[in-house]
Each structure stands twice: as C-alpha cells, then as structure tokens.
Automatic annotation (TrEMBL):
PANTHER family per UniProt: NAD-DEPENDENT PROTEIN DEACYLASE SIRTUIN-5, MITOCHONDRIAL-RELATED
Gene3D superfamilies: SIR2/SIRT2 'Small Domain, TPP-binding domain
Family: Belongs to the sirtuin family. Class I subfamily.
Full protein name: Deacetylase sirtuin-type domain-containing protein
Taxonomic superkingdom: Eukaryota
UniProt xrefs under Pfam families: SIR2 (PF02146)
Record: active site: 129
Domain Deacetylase sirtuin-type: 6-296
InterPro entries xref list: DHS-like_NAD/FAD-binding_dom, NAD-dep_sirtuin_deacylases, Sirtuin, Sirtuin_cat_small_dom_sf, Sirtuin_class_III, Ssirtuin_cat_dom
Binding-site list for Zn(2+): 137, 140, 190, 193
Species: Podospora bellae-mahoneyi
C-alpha cells in the first residue's frame, strides 16, 4: 500500500497539472465508466446485469450462436440507449485535448459512439472493441460501417420502446416478464450472401481486434517515449486494452494516471512514484484535470449523430 505521504502526492491535482503541462505524448485508455455519467451501464459490478444475464456472458460468439435473438435484443437495447444518451463533459474534454495536443491518442473500449459524437478527431481515436453502429455478416466480408436504424427490424422493436410505466422497470429488462421468442428468420440477414445473419460490429471475447489498428497503436507507442497514460473508467480486466498502460511506460518518465469511481488498495499499491490516482466520477474529474490545457469544456457542440 502507498504510504499516506505518497498517497497525498498520488492524488495531488497541482502536481498532476505540473506534469500535464510538460506532457506532449499522452495516451488515454478508456472504458465503460467514462460513459456512466451519460447513463450507460458498465459491464462489471452494479449495472452489469441485463435481465438475468451477465452482460459479459452475452458478449461472446458462443452466446450469439446459442441464441442470436437474445443477443440481438441485448445489442438492440444498447444501440437504443446509446442513441438516446449524450456525450458527457469527459468525452468533450478528451476531444479538446486531442485538438490542443497533436501528440495525444485515445484508445477506447467503448462501443457507444460518444467519443465520435463529441467530435474527437478520428485520427487520434482508436475504437478497440468496434462500434454498436457497425453491422457485419457473421460469415462473409459484408459490412455496414454506420447504421443507426432504431429499431433495426420489427422483431427488435421491444428494445426501442419507451417505458409505458416509468414507476416500473421496462418490461424488456424485467426478468419476470417472458421475452417473445425471436426466430432467426426475423433477424437481419446479410444482403450479400443472403443466407447468414448480420451481427453487431463489436469485438467479442476470443475474437481478434482489428490488426491494422493494433499495428497503428504499436507504432505510436514505439515512436517516442510516452509522457503520460490516462486510464479512465476501466476495470483493466480485458486484454489487450488492460496492457497498454504498462506497455507504454518508460520508467522514470511516464506517469500512469488512474481516474476511476473506485480505486482499490491493490490499485494504489501498484502505483509508482510519478503516477497519479483520482477517485471519482470521470465526467467531473477529467475536465478538471485537463483544464490547464483545454480551458473550460464547451459541451453543446454536437450537431448530428455520425461516425
Ligand atoms: C467509473 C464510473 C464513473 C464506473 N467514473 N469510473 C492476456 C491474458 C489473459 C487473457 C487474454 C490475454 N489477451 C487476450 C486474452 C483473452 C481476452 C481477455 O482479455 N480475457 C480477460 C477476461 C482476461 N481478450 C480477448 O478475447 C480479446 N481478444 C483478443 O485478445 O484476441 C486475441 C486472443 C484471444 C484469446 C486469447 C489470447 C489472445 C477481445 C476482448 C473483447 C472484449 N469485448 C467486450 C465486449 C465488447 C462489445 C460490447 O460492448 O458488448 O468489451 S467485454 C467488455 O469488457 C467490453 C468492454 O469494452 C470490456 C472492458 O470493460 P470496461 O470498459 O473496463 O468496463 P467495466 O465494467 O469492467 O469497468 C468499468 C470501470 O469503470 C470500473 O472500474 C468502475 O469502477 C469504473 N466506473 N462508473 C469513473 N462514473
Ligand atoms: Zn454475408
């Protein structure tokens, strides 16, 4: 565990600002906690259940093979929620940091499109786990890079309904209410090969991330030493994302900065001299931490939903 003196240094905003102002090469690794203040649930811990299913268990090719209707309802609901949500001040702050610091690159595990809607420059953003709004064929190479139809098809309409009685849970989310069974024939099929199902363009467990994107990240890390890594709203439980902070570390130079609602004793214990940890809501902390570089966050710039 870090001693109380070093704990004070680890959480010092003035010391962090001093380091930030000297940092040009900055990497961010973001996760679901970044979008929590936008109303989107995280995967692990409270909020990680969808009906009576663990959200992580639905994010697998095996779950899709076993029950594509159920998995499509889960993703259709998440598409609907993400379309209804708005980027929060942390998304806008990171987008502004990208404009102010050309040496900043943001790696995000989030598939909700909120970075893009906050106008994050696309050449400084890598969407590690794809997007809810990309559709692809389960088998052939057909892909629709951006589709925001909501509902995507009539069978998925229950996922796009507003709650008829806000005093009760949405019927779709209430495990006590049975789901109408969805036949494969009612789900969207590939317009090219015709026979196979469409699936969300996200990366499930056991699937490879886009290789060009991984090469690009590797090249970025290798190019020059990294001054700072911001690890925002992620449990750092999933690889390769969880490995990038240590991968980018040059001992004695790189500050790894954890921003999370909950920082465990183990997390504090792993921090080294020059690292930082800030416990709280990312939507409040990220704009405050980046203020010396980005100024006040202007959050109302979103004009249209786009990739
Ligand atoms: C707040 C907050 C607030 C809350 N403010 N904070 C090396 C070792 C061991 C295993 C592997 C390895 N390399 C690869 C693997 C296998 C596997 C893996 O990592 N397994 C682990 C379980 C160990 N990885 C893969 O399979 C990846 N593929 C791959 O590597 O291919 C090659 C290969 C395969 C097999 C073996 C070896 C190599 C693919 C990973 C794909 C992950 N997919 C998902 C679903 C995406 C689609 C979807 O969205 O549905 O990605 S799973 C899910 O977890 C999702 C997330 O992006 C990801 C990470 O979750 P995240 O974002 O961190 O969310 P949470 O909920 O976990 O945490 C939220 C955090 O926020 C918490 O800490 C809160 O405290 C905090 N928080 N509110 C700030 N307001
Ligand atoms: Zn196809």
């Amino acid at each position: 565990m870090a001693s109380s003196a070093s704990r004070a240094a680890l959480s010092s905003i003035p010391l962090f600002h001093e380091k930030l102002l000297k940092s040009n090469r900055i990497l961010a690794v973001c996760g679901a906690g970044l979008s929590a203040a936008s109303g989107l649930p995280t995967f692990r811990g409270a909020g990680g259940l969808w009906r009576n299913h663990n959200a992580v268990d639905l994010a697998t090719p095996e779950a899709f093979d076993a029950d594509p209707g159920l998995v499509w309802l889960f993703y259709a609901y998440r598409r609907h929620m993400a379309l209804t949500a708005k980027p929060n001040p942390a998304h806008y702050a990171l987008a502004e940091l990208a404009r102010k610091r050309p040496g900043f690159k943001c790696l995000s595990q989030n598939v909700d499109n909120l970075h893009v809607r906050a106008n994050h420059p696309s050449d400084q953003l890598s969407l590690l786990h794809g997007s809810l709004f990309t559709l692809k064929c389960t088998t052939c190479s057909w892909k629709d890079p951006y589709n925001i139809a909501d509902p995507l098809c009539p069978a998925l309409a229950p996922a796009a309904e507003s709650n008829p009685d806000p005093t009760k849970p949405l019927p779709l989310l209430d495990p006590a209410q049975p789901l109408a069974e969805i036949r494969e024939s009612e789900l969207p099929h590939c317009p090219d090969c015709k026979t196979e199902l469409q699936r969300p363009g996200v990366v499930w467990f056991g699937e490879m991330l886009d290789e060009d994107m991984l090469d690009d990240i590797e090249e970025w890390i290798e190019k020059e030493p990294v001054d700072m890594v911001l690890v925002v709203g992620t449990s750092s439980a999933v690889y390769p994302a969880a490995g990038y902070a240590e991968r980018a570390r040059t001992k004695g130079r790189t500050s790894v900065v954890t921003v999370n609602l909950e920082i465990t004793e183990e997390d504090w214990g792993r921090m080294r001299k020059g690292d930082f940890g800030f416990e709280g809501d990312a939507s409040l902390l990220v704009p405050e931490l980046l203020r010396p570089v980005i100024g006040e966050v202007k959050g109302e710039e979103e004009e249209e939903v786009k990739v």
